[in-house]
């Protein structure tokens, strides 16, 4: 739900402006486009920081050691 707040706010502001002043689209549409770009950049930054760096994840995965039992070795290898 948080991803739609900024665009909806921009659309509501544009709609309110059009209702009162006919020249508002000349200013409102570029502002709406800027708001959409800023919102998309913000959402991308939040998701990127939440997910973390893929290189760190790969390094951590390679560092983990797994102990296989003899039964595992039998089923994991092809003869």
How much helical structure, as a percent, in the residues? over 70%
Oligomeric grouping of the chains? single chain
Global mean pLDDT: 78
Query: Rg, please?
Result: 26 Å
- Total of helices: 4
Reading the helices and strands in chain order gives HHHH
- Approximate shape: rod-shaped
List how many beta strands DSSP finds.
0
Low-confidence stretches: none
Main sheet makeup: none
Proportion of residues in β-strands: under 5%
- How far apart, in Å, are the first and last alpha carbons? 53 Å
The helix/strand class is: mainly alpha
How would you describe this structure to a colleague?
77% of the residues lie in helices and 0% in strands. The longest helix has 28 residues, at 24-51. The chain has a domain at 25-62. It has 4 helices and no strands. The radius of gyration is 26 Å and the shape is rod-shaped. Helix 1 runs antiparallel to helix 2. It has helices at residues 5-20, 24-51, 54-63, 70-76. With 79 residues, it is mostly helical.
């Amino acid at each position: 739900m948080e991803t739609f707040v900024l665009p909806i706010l921009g659309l509501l502001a544009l709609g309110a402006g059009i209702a009162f002043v006919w020249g508002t689209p000349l200013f409102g549409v570029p502002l709406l486009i800027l708001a959409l770009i800023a919102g998309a950049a913000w959402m991308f930054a939040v998701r990127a920081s939440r997910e973390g760096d893929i290189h760190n994840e790969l390094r951590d995965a390679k560092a983990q050691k797994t102990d296989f039992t003899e039964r595992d070795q039998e089923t994991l290898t092809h003869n």
